């Protein structure tokens, strides 16, 4: 299925009336002089930064100079005219491709998305038709991701660019007087703190800075903490100070990286989807109607530990729900954690409801060193029976994938109260499994909420195959706009850093051609 923006792009061009100019005719020249569309093309490339792109990748400044000189000169000869015409065309084609599909391969930065690859668009023909119909700006606009989040980030990018030279960041915040500053305490940096919070929109404009951390300033600090993935306690501690000291220019780059991800993260591939945003620790279930996203469900999640068991980025179809699942302990967890634990504490085996499964499928419920050795040798495996202590809880949502990642409930719901929630071995624990099951099964009226709860409480393992597969996307966005407010989250797994490096390498590899000067005759 073609993405909506491709349909829009094709529709705009299909409606163009009249025959297109000949393919070998100059695209940006008329009677040897640059046309209005040529100047428009240069302006588009010069403003590439507004879309989070780099104008230097398209030699925008060089093309601006060459077109300006061509406008000041007599009609160009055929050869220099053709060279400049080709350079403008190449720049716009490159820009269109970057807008539409991004600049790097997602797999290069550990995003294992099954990105749908369609036949490449004939951008040369599209540009020629758009120029002939004086619709260049419209065609370019249709190439951006048709996502509400992209439009919101576009506005946020402009706003944080305006803050880049704001005086609030020209003066450093002084060191804290102690481990943290709490309400009622004095601090020499309060005027600068208030100035920054006001510039960011967390503190109402015109609020006089108090001599102590109190009142409106505490409320503003809590708003800032909430927007930056911190505990909103209204105290100024090390982590909050660290985020306050991030310069707006760094936030600009963070927004640019997020806009790049939106170009190739497959958000609108199906009418109904489940999306987990790892750095935000949030799952959203939504439906798409006429290209508009209707979020039906939002909940907290727990993801893989940043240190060593990161949740992979992928998109797969959910095909099963398992009620009261067995937990088949992955070999790596058995080898590194469970077997050593059972040797130290044999009672843990029965307390947690574990059992062995032999290579032939026979179930063995007795613990022995010999059986543990068989697990380490790879012949046997350990699984945990359904029950209140099962690591998967009472429901599991299965979307088969090479990493054996799935969604599931948990016997430790208290962890959802933490702000930072990377505690798992890679799988994703969901806060509201019944609500999620209702969304998944909403087209199957026999599966009411009561029936779902009964199946979860039955204590017997059973598997339900979905009538229609449901896409699950595990994504990574460290910037989110919610209710008009910009939220920034830590680069939990370092994926933003990798993307930044990949984009810098991409730009460094581009060597814009330098045709002879346009004044050459």
Topology, element by element:
Elements: H1 4-14, E1 29-30, E2 33-34, H2 36-46, H3 60-72, H4 78-101, E3 111-112, H5 123-132, H6 136-142, H7 148-162, H8 190-199, H9 216-227, H10 238-244, H11 248-264, E4 272-277, E5 282-289, E6 292-304, E7 313-323, E8 327-328, H12 331-344, H13 347-351, E9 354-357, E10 363-364, H14 369-376, E11 381-384, E12 395-398, E13 407-408, E14 422-424, E15 428-430, H15 433-440, H16 449-457, E16 462-475, E17 479-482, E18 485-488, H17 495-509
Parallel strand pairs: 3-7, 4-16, 6-14, 13-15
Antiparallel strand pairs: 1-2, 4-5, 5-6, 6-15, 7-12, 7-16, 8-11, 9-10, 9-11, 12-13, 17-18
Helix pairs in contact: 2-3, 2-4, 3-4, 7-11, 12-14
Roughly how much helix do the residues carry, as a percent range? 25-40%
Spatial strand order of the main sheet: 4-5-6-15-13-12-7-16
> Uncertain spans, ≥5 residues at pLDDT below 50?
1-21, 513-521
**Overall tally of domains:** 3
Q: What is the overall pLDDT average?
A: 90
CATH topology of the largest domain: L,D-transpeptidase catalytic domain-like
**What sort of overall outline do the alpha carbons produce when their principal axes are compared?**
globular
Label the CATH architecture of the largest domain. Beta Barrel
CATH hierarchy, class of the largest domain: Mainly Beta
Calculate the terminal CA-CA distance, rounded to whole Å: 50 Å
User: Nearest-angstrom radius of gyration?
Assistant: 28 Å
Number of strands: 18
Coarse structural class: alpha+beta
């Amino acid at each position: 299925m073609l993405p909506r923006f491709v349909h829009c792009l094709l529709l705009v061009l299909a409606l163009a009336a009249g025959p297109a100019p000949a393919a070998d005719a100059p695209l940006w020249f008329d009677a040897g002089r640059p046309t209005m569309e040529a100047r428009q093309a240069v302006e588009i490339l010069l403003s590439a930064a507004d879309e989070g792109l780099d104008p230097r990748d398209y030699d925008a400044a060089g093309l601006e100079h060459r077109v300006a000189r061509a406008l000041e000169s007599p009609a160009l000869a055929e050869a220099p005219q053709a060279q400049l015409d080709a350079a403008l065309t190449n720049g716009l084609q490159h820009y269109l491709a970057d807008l539409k599909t991004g600049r790097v391969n997602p797999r290069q930065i550990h995003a294992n998305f099954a990105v749908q690859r369609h036949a490449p668009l004939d951008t040369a023909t599209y540009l020629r038709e758009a120029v002939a119909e004086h619709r260049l700006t419209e065609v370019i606009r249709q190439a951006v991701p048709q996502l509400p989040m992209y439009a919101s980030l576009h506005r946020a990018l402009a706003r944080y660019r305006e803050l880049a030279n704001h005086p609030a960041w020209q003066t450093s915040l002084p060191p804290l007087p102690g481990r943290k500053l709490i309400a009622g305490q004095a601090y020499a940096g309060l005027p600068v703190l208030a100035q920054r919070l006001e510039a960011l929109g967390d503190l109402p404009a015109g609020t006089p800075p108090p001599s102590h951390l109190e009142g409106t300033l505490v409320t503003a600090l809590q708003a800032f903490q909430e927007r930056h993935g911190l505990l909103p306690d209204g105290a100024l501690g090390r982590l909050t100070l660290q985020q306050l000291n991030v310069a707006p220019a760094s936030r600009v780059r963070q927004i640019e990286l997020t806009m790049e991800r939106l170009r190739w993260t497959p958000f609108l591939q199906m009418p109904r989807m489940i999306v987990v945003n790892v750095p935000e620790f949030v799952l959203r279930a939504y439906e798409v109607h006429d290209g508009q996203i209707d979020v039906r469900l939002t909940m907290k999640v727990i993801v893989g530990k940043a240190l060593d068991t990161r949740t992979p980025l992928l998109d797969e179809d959910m095909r099963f729900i398992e009620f009261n699942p067995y937990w088949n302990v992955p070999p790596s967890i058995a080898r590194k954690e469970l077997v050593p634990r059972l040797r130290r504490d044999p009672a843990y085996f029965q307390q947690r409801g574990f059992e062995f499964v032999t290579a032939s499928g026979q179930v063995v419920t007795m613990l022995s060193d010999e059986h543990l050795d068989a697990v380490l040798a790879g012949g046997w495996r350990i699984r945990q029976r359904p029950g209140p202590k099962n690591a998967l809880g009472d429901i599991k949502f299965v979307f088969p994938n090479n990493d054996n990642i799935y969604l599931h409930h948990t016997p430790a719901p208290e962890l959802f109260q933490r702000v930072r929630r990377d505690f798992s071995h890679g799988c994703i624990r969901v806060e509201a499994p019944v609500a999620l099951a209702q969304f998944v099964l909403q087209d199957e009226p026999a599966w009411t909420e009561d029936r779902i709860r009964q199946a979860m409480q039955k204590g017997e393992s059973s598997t339900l195959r979905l009538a229609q597969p449901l896409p699950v996307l595990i994504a990574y966005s460290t910037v989110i706009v919610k209710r008009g407010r910009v939220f920034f989250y830590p680069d939990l797994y370092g994926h933003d850093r990798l993307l930044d490096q990949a984009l810098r390498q991409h730009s460094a590899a581009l060597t814009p051609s330098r045709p002879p000067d346009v004044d050459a005759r």
